[in-house]
Design a protein that fits this description.
The chain is built from twelve helices and eleven strands.
């Protein structure tokens, strides 16, 4: 196909990031390309009654002419589009949308077919000054008190229950039968047998749980409960119903002793309690460091967005949203959730995707402008941190480095770290102590 197959194309901005190119391809040159394509096809095409390469051109054209013409026009349009984009040094985001503009026409014997390519370009990003931004850097030192709290959480995660002859109290596990009636009639979902409930766990309505306290195994009780006005079952919202309840079993919680058996449950083979505390402390320090960094990183990203308001290509947002949706689908499937009943839509992630794309562009500009490129030793440090929680750290490190693509996560974290460090060095930073429970998300 010769260069005469296309005419010159002018780029027209239609918005901040959208561009349009009007492209006209010369029909006569397209026909030459179609002929060449059909000739190439005829050498290998198979058709009943003919040996390969011996099918008459007329029959090849009848069978494959439309495909050849479509391919020829597509190639001509793509060539014209690509040349103009390269000529203008445009950074195209996503793929162009090709729209036909007019039917083939005659122009002095050189008929043309006209199209418009609509596409988006990357925005021009110049990292703004962050010196006016304030970052509150939370601080927390892990002490024996935090280790004790963590061990208590670990004990509660391994709680057992023993049947007891007393009235039910908070944190007891109960087994009950109950029947609920509205206006004297049983209602759907209001009846259960051998139903297990953790008293105080919020599994049932507060008024329902309040009537369980003090009941012993074998005792019965009848009481009224008023459902909240915003209750999910509309037929019960705001209604008062009556329950008949039988307490069948009361089980009190039993926390494990902090002894050799408990230490072994936590992976300390010889049951050494001091060694267990040391490991809990080390793991806790890692977790605290991770959470402190996450809080700082969130503020840094917000600061970057605040001083760098940019418009981002819709094509990039759509691709990011689809990737997020696919990740959500995989996560739900791994949890055993049927995706046919929960069709995840990319549109659900539009706002998050827009934020991610903006930050990606801003960080890329900072890395380039401030020379924040990742160094190999930074990646190795992060990989070593990944590996130290495993039984054989050296094997984990070898696994990461055996295939370069496995290092992508570590490289991304190192890059983020460089950006965070740069912002902290240039913004106004104040250290603020944070409570252990607040950092760990403990509400009790």
């Amino acid at each position: 196909m010769t260069d005469k197959a296309t005419t010159d194309a002018a780029i027209k901005p239609t918005s901040a990031l959208e561009r349009r190119i009007d492209i006209a391809v010369v029909q006569a040159e397209i026909e030459k390309d179609v002929e060449q394509r059909l000739k190439r096809m005829s050498r290998t095409v198979k058709m009943a009654g003919f040996r390969p390469g011996k099918v008459p051109m007329k029959m090849v054209a009848q069978q494959y002419g439309s495909q050849a013409r479509s391919d020829a026009i597509g190639a001509a349009v793509e060539k014209a589009y690509g040349e103009k984009v390269r000529e203008q040094n445009l950074r195209v985001a996503g793929y162009p949308r090709i729209e036909p503009r007019m039917e083939p026409n005659s122009d002095g014997g050189t008929g043309q077919i006209s199209f418009t390519a609509v596409f988006e370009v990357y925005p021009d990003v110049v990292a703004a000054d962050v010196s006016g931004q304030t970052i509150e850097k939370p601080t927390l030192t892990v002490t024996e008190a935090e280790v004790d709290k963590t061990i208590e959480v670990l004990r509660k995660q391994r709680v057992s229950y023993a049947e007891i002859d007393r009235g039910a109290a908070k944190e007891d596990r109960l087994v009950i039968d109950f029947i609920g009636r509205k206006n004297g009639e049983e209602f759907p979902g209001g009846k259960a047998s051998d139903f297990a409930v953790l008293l105080g766990g919020g599994q049932m309505l507060p008024d329902f749980e309040a009537n369980l306290e003090g009941l012993k195994a074998g005792e019965q009780k009848t009481f009224d409960v008023t459902f909240p006005a915003d209750y999910q079952a509309k037929e019960l919202a705001g209604e008062t119903v009556q329950f008949e309840l039988t307490m069948k079993k009361v089980e009190a919680p039993r926390l494990p002793e902090i002894d050799a058996d408990f230490a072994k449950q936590l992976g300390v083979a010889d049951g050494d309690v001091d060694k267990m505390r040391a490991e809990v402390s080390l793991n806790l320090q890692r977790e605290v460091k991770k959470r402190l960094l996450a809080k700082v990183k969130e503020q840094v990203m917000e600061a970057l967005l605040a001083v760098n308001p940019i418009e981002v290509p819709k094509a990039l947002v759509e691709m990011e949203a689809e990737q997020m949706a696919e990740a959500a689908r995989r996560d739900m499937e791994s949890r055993g959730m049927g995706m046919k009943n929960i069709p995840v839509q990319a549109s659900w992630f539009g706002e998050q995707a827009t934020r991610r794309v903006k930050l990606g562009l801003l960080m890329a500009e900072l890395v380039k402008a401030k020379d924040l490129h990742v160094k190999p030793e930074q990646v190795r440090t992060i990989v070593d941190e990944f590996a130290e929680t495993f039984e054989d750290p050296k094997e984990v490190v070898r696994w990461y480095y055996s295939q370069p693509q496995r290092l992508a996560e570590a490289e991304a974290l190192a890059l983020e770290s460089n950006v965070v460090d740069w912002v902290l060095a240039n913004a106004q930073v104040s250290e603020t102590p944070i409570a252990f429970d607040a950092l760990m998300g403990n509400t009790a």
